[in-house]
Backbone:
């Protein structure tokens, strides 16, 4: 059953009243020499009497006791056909300006479109840009999780969601803030963007930065956050490179140790 909203009836009309006395005479051609009053709807949504006299051009607003009618929730008024919103959803009962909105039945809410630029991923349970169709990693109901940075809801947020390569979601604004401090997903530590160019720069820096003698033959076990592979590599303060995917997004997974021939 649709909700019913209480709205003031549209009683627009002009009436003449000599010297301000009430004399209800509907008159669309009211003279400027007499006081005119008409009922209008102001910006706050309240009805009132507005009067103007020939000697005083200022407007005075008075609240009046007007009859109330009950209307079904809809885009236009049944009585005066006034438009309540450029966009109206008969399911969500949402009134708004035209922002190319559309209602997604799978999401259960209205989203800002245009609709033809988005598709609904049934596994992620979220509408995503067409550019991500077949190019993102799906995680079951990932949109129902809160943003790991601001801890606010993602599914119903007015801020767009950014899909990381690992499949986790962040608010687009939170993603931009995160890149100012780091490059890894706050949940799984996977690289949040393509770091290949930076890894090659780090290769040059490691080659040009020799370690002190006591650390030159030090080996360490590492775990790669990008491919989850384990490997044993030479310890270096600037970073330790994964042997499997050549990423420097690694973590030490054991104590430093010397090769057996030097122990």
Residues:
């Amino acid at each position: 059953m649709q909700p019913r909203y209480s709205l003031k009836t549209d009683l627009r009309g002009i009436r003449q009243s000599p010297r301000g006395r009430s004399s209800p005479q509907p008159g669309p051609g009211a003279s400027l020499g007499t006081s005119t009053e008409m009922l209008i709807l102001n910006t706050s949504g309240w009805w009132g009497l507005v009067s103007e006299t020939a000697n005083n051009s200022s407007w005075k607003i008075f609240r009046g006791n007007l009859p109330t009618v009950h209307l079904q929730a809809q885009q236009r008024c049944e009585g005066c056909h006034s438009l309540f919103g450029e966009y109206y959803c008969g399911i969500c009962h949402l009134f708004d300006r035209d922002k190319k909105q559309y209602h997604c039945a799978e999401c259960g809410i209205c989203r800002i479109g245009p609709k033809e630029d988005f598709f609904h991923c049934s596994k992620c349970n979220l509408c995503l840009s067409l550019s991500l169709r077949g190019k993102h990693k799906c995680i079951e109901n990932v949109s129902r999780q809160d943003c790991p940075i601001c801890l606010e809801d993602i599914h119903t947020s007015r801020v767009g969601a950014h899909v990381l390569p690992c499949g986790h979601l962040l608010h687009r604004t939170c993603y931009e803030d995160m890149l100012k401090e780091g490059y890894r997903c706050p949940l799984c530590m996977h690289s949040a963007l393509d770091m290949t160019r930076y890894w090659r720069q780090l290769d040059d820096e490691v080659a040009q930065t020799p370690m002190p003698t006591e650390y030159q033959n030090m080996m360490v076990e590492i775990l790669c956050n990008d491919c989850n592979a384990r490997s044993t590599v030479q310890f270096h303060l600037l970073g330790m490179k994964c042997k499997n995917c050549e990423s420097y997004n690694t973590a030490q997974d054991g104590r430093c140790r010397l090769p057996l021939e030097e122990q």
